[in-house]
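Let us work through a complete example step by step.
Step 1: write down the sequence.
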Amino acid sequence: MAKIIQKTELAPQVYEFVVAAPLVAHKCQPGQFVMIRTDEQSERIPLTIADFDRLQGTITMIVQAVGNTTKHLCETYGEGDDILDIAGPLGRPSHIENFGTVICVGGGIGVAPVYPIARALKAAGNKVISIIGARSADLLIFKDKMDSVSDELIITTDDGSCGRKGFVTQPLKEILETGQKPGLVLAIGPVIMMRNVSETTRPFQVHTIASLNTIMVDGTGMCGGCRVRVGQDNMFACVDGPEFDAHLVDFANLVQRQQMYKDKESLEYGCGGHCRCVED
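Step 2: predict the structure and record it as tokens.
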């Protein structure tokens, strides 16, 4: 059992859960995730660890209510309630070192898992430039947290309601066109966004990492739902990642595979909300 210590609505249908999970909090590293089961009837779903406090023994998870399980969690569970199971930390941690300058790009709820990685990169001595984006101002999350770990924070929204109007790739391209060559670009968000970030950095030959946590399903490598072609190898985001060299990821195949079951990834079929069935 893991007790919910704090629940906060960050944006429409997006909630922050701080839960007591001391064993996970003691061992987890930026980039890792947990598998949760809300109750005996629940499916198991993966959620990225968006923050952790080793002294308090808590971890923070960001949940978007888009499927049966995530809607049940967000609408039914509150502070003081217990989540039945939390297993983790799982996945390979982010590689943290002093790259010099790093650009951290987060889209939508993907900003949340960017935060602990950006914080660790900053602590390692890097200059951190963060670019975060959402469709509109009310969907932006972790703005203050990202600002606190960034030397420069750039905000974009599709409709221009906060920061610059446009997509995260626009300021990224402008920075690269100035001749700056960061040691690392990290992208976390919708698959389409990560693909576009990868194609933006490719001509500049900048090392780019994409975290494919959004495509995970069972978190153990058994279901094959997060299979992805990376270079010449077939890999699984949950056990081999979730972070991969973005320039080696076959995004075309990944997008095609996601579209194959889009009609079944809905509330009617019991999607857990960790897929991207609502993604354009």
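Step 3: interpret the result. The domain at 2-90 is CATH 2.40.30.10 (Elongation Factor Tu (Ef-tu); domain 3).
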